Amino acid sequence: MNQFLDQAIIISVRAHGESGAVIHVLTEDHGKCGGYVNGAQASSRLRSTLQPGNIVNVDWQSKSEGQLGRFDVELEQDISASLFSDAKSLLAVQSACALIDMFLPDREKQDALFHGTCALMNIMKTDQWPAVYITWEMAFLKEMGYGIDISKCAVSGVEGGLTHVSPKSGRAVCAAEAEPYKDKLLEIPSFMREGELSDDDITKGLKLTGYFLMHRLLQHSSYHALPDARHQLENSMDSV
Predict the structure, then answer these.
(1) Which residues, 6+ apart, have CB-to-CB distance to 18 below 8 Å?
(2) Rounded to whole angstroms, how far apart are CA atoms 91 and 84?
(3) Considering Cα of 117, then 97, then 15, then 45, what sign does the dihedral take?
(4) Cβ 155 vs Cβ 178: under 8 Å
(5) Domains along the chain?
(6) To bridge 230 with a disulfide, which of 95, 122, 185, 211 should be the other Cys (CB 3.0-4.6 Å)?
(7) Quick one: pLDDT at residue 239?
(8) How big is the CA angle at 99 (ends 80 and 216), to the nearest 5 degrees?
(9) Is the pTM of this model over 0.90?
(10) pLDDT band at 220, cuts 50/70/90?
């Protein structure tokens, strides 16, 4: 018998059979894992527990390492219920969970991503969540090997005055070097440069990370589109 106990974040739930569900979770010590939950559709407690973004304790058991296995799940933090009336923050939670579900390989320990995602879920109740969500996407891209480097200018090497990112290299460019090519570059939101959030920063940030999610991460995967929640989130923030 194979078994582990761990803390986890619910990232996806798919109905299976008449009353069960197959869920995927991001765990602290065992990476992304899948398993079957008996009675997931029939139990109101389980239905409310098995919502993307919720932080849970899991007991996973399987007769052999290669099998799907079964989960027993206990709720620790009900993230989804606290955001029920906020459509945009719910979209952000769904987007983060769907990106993990789509692109993260199974059974590879990702403790930094786990703790970063827990922090994101806990800050979703505050007004700061949009900037933190963009920072989370930056970290996710880095974890997946497609990081955006905004530490210094790719041309001059200066560390100040960075305003844009090259879509080809993923590296920052300072204002002086960016000026002739502004229409071909991606803008860095001011909160990443100065720590102050401007009115259009969220739109700029989502466009910046969205470009690399689409043109780097997605193109090197078997998927053909980013999660619907990610598109809806960007569209909803762009309409503000």
Answers:
(1) 41
(2) 11
(3) positive
(4) no
(5) 2-82 (2.40.50.140), 87-238 (1.20.1440.120)
(6) 95
(7) 63
(8) 155
(9) yes
(10) very high
What does DSSP assign to residue 154?
Answer: T
Q: Which two tokens stand for residue 152?
A: 């210094």
What are the structure tokens assigned to 64, written together?
Answer: 């052999």
Q: Is 170 left (phi over 0), alpha (psi -120 to 50) or beta?
A: left
pLDDT tens for 32-55 read: 999 999 999 999 999 999 999 999
| Model pLDDT for residues 78-110, shown as the tens digit of each residue | 999 999 889 999 999 999 999 999 999 999 999
Give 37's Cβ-side CA count (13 Å radius).
Answer: 28
Give me 193's structure tokens. Answer: 């440069």
Q: What is the pLDDT of residue 49?
A: 97
24 strand-pairing partners: 12, 34
Q: Do residues 148 and 170 make contact, with C-beta atoms less than 8 angstroms apart?
A: yes
Q: What dihedral do alpha carbons 163, 171, 102, 60 form, nearest 10°?
A: -100
What is the token pair recorded at 220?
Answer: 């090197």
Could you tell me the two tokens for 57? Answer: 């304790």
Q: Which of 170, 163, 174, 166 is nearest to 148 (CA)?
A: 170
**Helices marked H in 15-66:** 44-49
Q: Is the pLDDT of residue 161 over 80?
A: yes
Backbone angles phi, psi at 78, to 5 degrees: -90, 90
Copy the structure tokens of residue 217.
């991460």
